[in-house]
Amino acid sequence: MAKVTVSLEADFAIELMLLAGTRNPQDAVELILRDYLARSRRTEARTGDAADESRLVKPDTAVQEG
How far is it, in rounded angstroms, from Cα 27 to Cα 34? Predict the structure, then answer.
């Protein structure tokens, strides 16, 4: 897998490390990003996406008189 280098301010990196409970800023960023992506996928699975729009439209249930 390709690696990417990202520069962060020291204060931001420390906050990430505290939030993730790690001693390494790289591990902290990786854990937080993996969690973010996992939550996004779970949300899409629960709410659907644009292709699921048809299931949200209620059919016209009015009785036609005539």
Answer: 10
